[in-house]
Amino acid sequence: MSSTNLKVTIDGSAGSAAPYEQLRAQIADRARTGRLPAGFKLPTVRGLAEELGLAANTVAKAYRALEADGVIETRGRNGTFVAAAGDAAAREAAAAAQAFADRAKRLGLPLAEARAAAEAALRARYAQ
User: Count of alpha carbons within 13 Å of 100, Cβ hemisphere only?
Assistant: First the structure.
């Protein structure tokens, strides 16, 4: 079973770790290495459970463990996100960057144009 969105795979064979632990470990590893950037919105518990063919309680258990470890954070009705390491300013900046990326994608901007727009705004704001 695998998730195309998160690129996680659950090994259901005998002797492998419990599915919630496999999910927890893979998300934690991807967040730690930056393959899941701070501010990345995770699928809903039900959505990911459906995609992976797991029980919703299994995914919820993995999410609870990740939240307890500070890897992810739940923002009420807005969803569950990869937590930013560091202080509140870094977390807020990561959330703003994710919101920009989401908006640029919805507008249909190619990656290069979105990146150029962000860099131009940063240069203008930080100009000496």
Answer: 16
For 24, phi then psi, to 5°, come to -60, -50
CA distances from 58 to 42, 55, 74, 89 (A): 15, 5, 17, 33
Indicate yes or no: pTM above 0.90: no
Residues 84 and 91: beta-carbon distance below 8 Å: yes
Pairing between β-strand 41-42 and β-strand 8-9 as defined by DSSP bridges: unpaired
Question: Which pLDDT belongs to residue 88?
Answer: 56
Dist. CA 88–CA 69, nearest whole Å: 17
Token pair 């079973």: residue? 1
Cα–Cα distance measured from residue 69 to residue 11, given in angstroms and rounded to the nearest whole number: 23
Q: How far apart are CA 82 and CA 73, in angstroms?
A: 6
Tokens read off for 43? 């699928």
84: amino acid identity, one letter: A
